[in-house]
Amino acid sequence: MSFKKATLSEAERSRIIEMAWEDRTPFEAIKEQFGLNEKEVRVFMRQSLKPGSFKLWRKRVSGRATKHLQLRSPEVSRGYCPTQYKQR
After folding, report:
1. pLDDT digits over 13-56, tens only?
2. Among 37, 38, 30, 33, residue whose Cα is nearest residue 61
3. Whole-angstrom distance, CA of residue 46 vs CA of residue 49
4. In this structure, which long-range contacts are made by residues 8-15, counting pairs with CB atoms below 8 Å and at least 24 apart in sequence?
5. Helix or strand or coil: residue 74?
6. Which of 21, 28, 44, 83 has the CA that lies 20 to 30 A from 58?
7. What is the number of domains present in the chain?
8. CA–CA distances in Å: residue 84 to residues 1, 7, 18, 64, 75
9. In a domain, 86, yes or no
């Protein structure tokens, strides 16, 4: 995990954190885009966030069906809010 983190740019690390916090972005999307599975995302977040922020994040994502494609309702067809992406 530390090797993967070391090879990520600051923008990529920031995007992983942003995706991990988003309710509708499943862990599978992070895996597809950055190659980090759910366990690796947890380790990454633990290393990247302050302890209190990490605890809040874990509480938020634990048991959240939208963070796993297999648990999602088929009615959820996208992984993000249309207004979430910033103009570049």
Report:
1. 999 999 999 888 889 889 999 999 999 999 999 999 999 999 99
2. 38
3. 6
4. 8/34, 13/48
5. coil
6. 83
7. 1
8. 28, 26, 10, 20, 20
9. no
* Domain span including residue 29: 2-68
Burial class, 66, CB count within 10 angstroms (exposed 0-12 / middle 13-18 / buried 19+): middle
* Per-residue model confidence as pLDDT tens digits over 40-49: 999 999 999 9
If phi over 0 gives left and psi between -120 and 50 gives alpha, with beta otherwise, what is residue 26?
Answer: beta
> Which tokens is 39 given?
């366990």
Q: Is residue 85 part of a domain?
A: no
Q: Is 19 exposed, middle or buried (0-12, 13-18, 19+ CB in 10 A)?
A: buried
Structure tokens at 58: 């874990």
Q: Tell me if 73 is assigned to some domain.
A: no
